[in-house]
Specification:
Elements lengths: L1 H6 L2 H30 L3 H35 L3 H12 L3 H40 L3
Helix pairs in contact: 2-3, 3-5, 4-5
């Protein structure tokens, strides 16, 4: 019974669900895109899809990772002591020039925290464009 409980952990069940989901996508790509091109002997289109589709799948992973990093860094920023101090100072100051200066500092902190995730998101978008271009060549 303990052996079964160790196997059926939440992590393992999520990995199994992800494997089934990704496997379904790959089977769908094979049967609905690649196999018809193979049967029709459209070799150029088949090769362009064999190159472009993996790039698009990688782009999907990069986009998910970038979104995760973006959310993770946003949550981490809100627990930093300097962030909390800036928020308190911003609420305490009513003079517009001091408040604007604090808001500028807060904005710079936010942009610095969001930069890694935004770069991953941009990379994923560029990979999508590249994969789509290669897939649509023929």
């Amino acid at each position: 019974m303990q052996f079964l409980q160790r196997i059926l952990t939440l992590r393992n069940l999520l990995l199994l669900a992800a494997f089934v989901f990704v496997g379904g996508i790959i089977l769908s790509i094979f049967y609905e895109t690649l196999l018809p091109l193979l049967r029709a002997e459209q070799w150029a289109a088949l090769v362009s899809n064999l190159i472009g589709i993996p790039i698009i799948l990688c782009a999907t992973g990069v986009l998910f990772w970038g979104g995760w990093r973006f959310l993770q860094e946003t949550a981490r920023l809100q627990t930093k002591p300097e962030w909390l101090r800036m928020q308190q100072l911003r609420q305490a100051h009513s003079i517009s020039t001091e408040r604007r200066a604090l808001q500028g500092t807060i904005l710079r902190m936010m942009l610095a925290a969001w930069k890694p995730g935004a770069l991953w998101l941009l990379s994923g978008t560029l990979l999508f464009i590249l994969g789509d271009f290669i897939t649509g060549l023929f």
